[in-house]
Amino acid sequence: MKAFPIIISSPSGAGKTTIIEAVLKQNKTVARVITATTRSPRKGEKNGKDYHFWTIKQFEQAIKKHQMLEWAQVHTHYYGIPKKSVDSLMKKGICPILVIDVQGARTVKEQYPQAALIFIVPPSLKELKKRILGRNDNTQDIEIRLETAKKEMREIDKYDYVLLNDDLKEAVTKMAGIIAAEQCRVVRHDSKKLKNLK
Fold it and tell me: CA torsion, points 97, 101, 102, 108, in degrees to nearest 10?
């Protein structure tokens, strides 16, 4: 199989991290690409596991040298995907999972047309608000996140799949099924090898 990027987007609080972690435990042919950021680690976060924690100088150098697949400045911090992280996994035949926003998804799809795009949606905006509230975010932040979620969900038609997360177990099963189906597509395989099977 020819490895390809799997792009996953969703509003904050839709459950993407939980779904992806469950799929990663089941499927060793996929791996999550670690995002680089200039923000400080939160309690319990480890460098190289949760994020690559870089200095602003390191990040800006990587941008200048065209080493970032996609990046954005969110408030005062940079976030982005180092290109070599994606390419090194694909060379090993592993499909990189990129958890990025809709703008980043467009950028990556332009560079990797073979990428599969999956959008995770919550059962409703009311449920999404409840989930965000459960994270103890401040009220102002919640309203910003909900507005962002509405904007992001207008981009769903640019994706290959939409995954409703109203039942976690079912969402994990469906995500695993989408990935397995994509990996079985004829275009993902060497047609000469398939024709020469004996």
Answer: -50
